[in-house]
Design a protein that fits this description.
Chains A, B: Its EC number is 6.3.2.31. 2 copies of one chain form a homodimer. With 254 residues, the first copy, chain A, is of the alpha+beta class. The first copy, chain A, is built from 6 helices and 10 strands; from the N terminus they run E-H-E-H-E-H-E-E-E-E-H-E-E-H-E-H. The first copy, chain A, starts with a strand and ends with a helix.
């Protein structure tokens, strides 16, 4: 049985706030954490605590500053430009993960600088405070290729196996399960979104029931989920790649 | 609180089996279904019940037959070809969703012909049998662009709002939440995978705690999650689009 619930009473987070204290206090008002629990934290409050709120009237400028590589862009009939970019974390996301919702007017919120490090810090703090051997995921809401809508995914992880290790296991016919590598961190991030909600102030959830996934704080983080561009068949939008090819073909010697 | 658990004792499924009966019997041995529960069924057993097991020694041939459109392909140094294709359901998936794991040697399993219809049939049957107003999702394990590993996603849905409707809701600053469209069906599919597991014979899970997402059987199905290729910035692999552009550029008049 997997149980997932949101913590109530996490206040509005400000720069410098101690998330371990805020989360720990919220836990103290409800169900205590136990060994194997996974605490799932919306990146927004991590960014706020780390002071990643920037004064910027120009969200587009902030997106440009957070762009390592333009993957694809599209202009809507109304003139709205959507940019899918690789951000400094290697994550491919619309608007580079720059967020202007739930932030004061005239400001934008950048993703945490190193979400795996943030997760390690929160996990270490919660382990020390509660005595429970917990893991921590930091999540963001991400769009996808080929499918409409968004789902929450893990952008930071500590003390959690982000992939289920099926090596050595076999299917019901006795053949090795080689290809499948379930990204359990993303699955837990998605599950947590179902209880956190988007408009409510419930940025932290707890997932209980997969204690087998919780381990040492130096396990590979969510960075290991990011597929390097050179191995990615979709490292560039179809229109952009076509245009690149067209330009190269034009100048190729006949 | 979201609770997700797998049903125990679902037997090996054969063509013609009545999934409502198999799932209903498994429910009867455990926790009864209540209004608002969402039953999450691995597509593999739907395919098996619907006789989608094909005798085929050549999986590649079966993939070709299930290919509406080649999206991208890559050959590994060892000569293994990975094909990402759009299948007849519009779903972009590696190997078109053709499955050769957990099937007898010399056979492959195709996806259900119409997973939304399959979901409607199972949901109608379970509602009649149990008296509980439940929804049904049918899931498959899908890879993603940009991120390693796979997560379970919804390929069939009935009686479930596949997207959370945030229209009219505002963020904490009072601004409308317009862009975000959480794909809750995919999030529930992902959550269910955490209890079903890949190697165990637990192909059905129940998710309880989001009764607000359960509705009429004629709600839009999982087909509505599929982004039409013409609106998809990643409708073609980067290498393939580049090659198309290059070829077009070569023959363009100078």
């Amino acid at each position: 049985m997997l149980q997932v619930w949101a913590l109530e009473g996490i206040p509005e987070v400000s720069p410098g706030d101690d998330l371990v204290a805020l989360i720990g206090d919220a836990v103290d008002r409800g169900e205590p954490l136990v060994d194997g629990d996974i605490v799932v934290v919306t990146s927004k409050i991590v960014s706020k605590a780390e002071g990643r709120l920037l004064r910027s009237d120009d969200r587009e400028e902030a997106i440009t500053a957070q762009t390592v590589r333009l993957v694809a862009s599209r202009t809507s009939p109304a003139g709205h430009v959507t940019r899918i970019v690789e951000n400094p974390l290697g994550i491919v996301a619309a608007a580079a993960g720059v967020d202007a919702s739930n932030t004061p007017d005239g400001t934008v919120l950048l993703l945490p600088e190193d979400p795996d490090a943030s997760a390690r810090s929160i996990a270490a703090g919660l382990r020390e405070r509660t005595g429970a051997h917990v893991g921590v995921l930091i999540t963001d809401t991400l769009g996808r290729a080929w499918r409409e809508g968004q789902i929450d995914q893990a952008i930071g992880a500590a003390g959690v196996h982000v992939f289920e290790d099926l090596r050595g296991q076999t299917d019901a016919e006795g053949r090795p399960l080689v290809v499948t590598q379930p990204c359990v961190a993303d699955e837990i991030a998605a599950a947590a979104d179902l209880v956190k909600g988007k408009s409510s102030r419930m940025p932290v959830a707890v997932a209980r029931g997969r204690a087998d996934l919780v381990g040492a704080l130096d396990l590979p983080g969510a960075r290991s989920i990011v597929r390097p561009a050179e191995r990615d068949m979709f490292r560039r939008g179809a229109d952009e790649a076509y245009a690149d090819g067209y330009a190269a073909g034009r100048i190729a010697p006949h």
